[in-house]
Write a structure and sequence with these properties.
Blueprint: E1 3-7, E2 24-29, E3 36-40, E4 47-51, E5 63-65, E6 70-72, H1 78-89, E7 98-102, E8 110-114, H2 120-127, H3 130-135, E9 141-147, E10 160-164, H4 176-187, E11 192-195, H5 209-212, E12 230-236, H6 252-260, H7 268-284, E13 289-295, E14 309-313, H8 318-330, E15 333-337, H9 343-348, E16 351-356, H10 376-382, E17 383-387, H11 392-412
Parallel strand pairs: 8-9, 8-11, 9-10, 12-13, 12-15, 13-14, 15-16, 16-17
Antiparallel strand pairs: 1-11, 2-3, 3-4, 4-5, 5-6, 7-10
Helix pairs in contact: 7-11
């Protein structure tokens, strides 16, 4: 079922960190990205909020002690503990935009899918759980709560959409005003459970077209479309492609800080590498269609060859992302540096070449939405992960191989 009871009965399993007694559940609270049970220790009388089983808390649930604001984190996952501790310390009662779209009449038990988060990829991956509830779990009505930047991706069939005007940088916010809106809405339904919002849904449970309304690259037309080989580089100004290792790898804490507040870095290096890649490919493939897509700071224009389509934007917006998805879906191959920036490109393109460094090895494949994984050999052919320091000439050779040799590979390997 992949749900956790929320209303009128709430189910949470935590023990008192002092008495080792199972805590009593007295209610629930959803003040933002965190879904919490309101809990009491029958022995020592201490009060807590305990994570309900959803999202990251499925794997590393934590307890917040109300009086002291201390987080008890038996799993030692500091980033997740810190978000809870800091958001509670800075809790606010300020209203935020809360737009309720009632699309279908609610007649059945409700599943609430909370997609709020402070990381783009986490929010998006939570939303992909909608398909599971709409498909295999069709005896419920689905309500999704999304940050406004994701509203365009909510699939058809969802009964209600609650669009919350919280930008990513405020994604961990503990907002009492929002908690009251959510409570009022949830308590208006007879029975509500919380989607467990798996951090990484299985590839066969995600049909990206239901979310973006963009048909992915037709793999059956790979060779037919080689008259215009199409390649797209996914640009990030805060995590650029680089080929020298002269910058020491950042610490975990530093990396997290950078994720939350993107630090601009000089762009010259990346633009040069991408230009070299594009030119190297075009030398062998004169009909090449090459584009660069992604977030760039204003002023980055003019740093790419004029024949390259520059689709970079300074900010994320529905229309930008939709247009980008059309471009991914037209691409034989997308190329980019590891990160959540690769989720939608990989979901729509024919193949992927990803640059990944040792500090990200532990996050392998977490940023890729695989397509057609029936034969693992074919999958491995189309999804390549290479060292982040790979130079443009070598990368161009690999992209060319994917473009021109896929059909030979399929014949040789008897791929059905
Ligand atoms: Zn106790």
């Amino acid at each position: 079922m992949r749900t956790t009871p929320l209303h009128p009965v709430t189910d949470a399993d935590h023990e008192c960190p002092y008495c080792r007694e199972r805590l009593d559940v007295r209610g629930w609270l959803i003040p933002g990205m965190r879904n919490l049970a309101d809990m009491l220790c029958g022995r020592c009388g201490r009060e807590f909020y305990g994570d309900l089983a959803a999202g990251q808390a499925l794997y590393t649930p934590m307890l917040l002690e109300k009086a002291a604001g201390v987080v008890h984190d038996p799993h030692g996952v500091e980033w997740f503990a810190g978000w809870l501790r800091d958001s509670y310390a800075r809790r606010t009662d300020d209203p935020v935009a809360f737009d309720v779209q009632e699309r279908l009449r609610v007649t059945r038990p409700v599943v609430l899918l909370n997609c709020l988060d402070t990381l783009y990829g986490h929010s998006l991956l939570k939303l992909l759980n909608a398909q599971y509830h709409l498909g295999r779990h069709a005896d419920v009505d689905l309500v999704v709560m999304v940050p406004s930047f994701l509203a365009w991706m909510v699939p058809d069939g969802v009964a209600q959409v609650w669009v919350v005007g919280l930008p990513l940088r405020r994604g961990t916010e503990w907002n009492e005003w929002l908690a009251r809106q959510v409570r009022r809405r949830v308590e208006a339904f007879q029975q509500v459970s919380l989607s467990q919002a798996l951090s990484h849904p299985r590839p066969d449970e995600v049909d990206i077209e239901r979310f973006t309304r963009v048909k992915p690259f037709p793999l059956g037309e790979w060779d037919a479309r080689l008259g215009r080989p199409t390649v797209t580089f996914i640009w990030r100004h805060d995590r650029p492609w680089r080929v020298t290792d002269d910058v020491p790898p950042p610490t975990r804490r530093g990396r997290l800080r950078r994720l939350l507040t993107p630090q601009p870095r000089p762009q010259g290096g990346q633009a040069e590498l991408v230009s070299d890649l594009a030119e190297a490919l075009r030398r062998d493939l004169p009909a090449l269609d090459f584009a660069v897509v992604g977030l760039a700071e204003a002023g980055g224009r003019g740093d790419l060859p004029v024949w390259v389509k520059d689709m970079r934007r300074p900010k994320l917006g529905d229309d930008a992302e939709r247009g980008w998805c059309d471009r991914y879906a037209a691409s034989h191959v997308v190329v980019g540096v590891h990160g959540s920036n690769m989720l939608l490109p990989s979901a729509h393109a024919g193949g992927v070449v990803e640059l990944i460094g040792p500090e990200r090895w532990g996050n392998f494949t977490q940023d890729v939405l695989f397509r057609d994984t029936a034969d693992c050999r074919e999958t491995l052919f189309r999804y390549r992960f290479v060292d982040e320091l790979t130079p443009p000439s070598a990368l161009a050779r690999l992209v060319e191989l994917l473009l021109s040799k896929r059909e030979d590979f399929r014949r040789l390997m008897n791929v059905l």
